């Protein structure tokens, strides 16, 4: 049986050449849709920032949260 450390030593982060090949394959597959994907990601980031701003601007409640009544054991 191969020890786990030996198996993990064989797996490493892709180097510059491998990253170039992966980017090339991605460009071939998604080339036509890249502008659409970029717009979608941009809109998502804008909506996320807008939501975060709204959360930060919400007034904090001065009242503490209500506690739920605790259940009593009947047994």
Walk me through what this model shows.
The chain is an all-alpha fold. It has a domain at 19-56. The protein has helices at 4-10, 16-30, 34-57. The longest helix has 24 residues, at 34-57.
Alpha carbon gap, first and last residue:
53 Å
Summed up, the helix count is 3
Largest sheet: none
Helical percentage: 55-70%
Q: Please state the oligomeric state of the protein chains shown.
A: single chain
Sum up the overall morphology in one term. Answer: flat
What class, by secondary structure content?
A: mainly alpha
- Rounded to the nearest angstrom, the radius of gyration is 26 Å
Low-pLDDT windows of residues: none
Strand content: under 5%
Give a short summary of the structure.
By secondary structure, this protein is mainly α.
Task: Write out key terms for the chains shown.
75 residues; mainly alpha; 3 helices; 61% helix
Question: What is the strand and helix layout of this fold?
Answer:
Layout (H helix, E strand, L loop, with lengths): L3 H7 L5 H15 L3 H24 L18
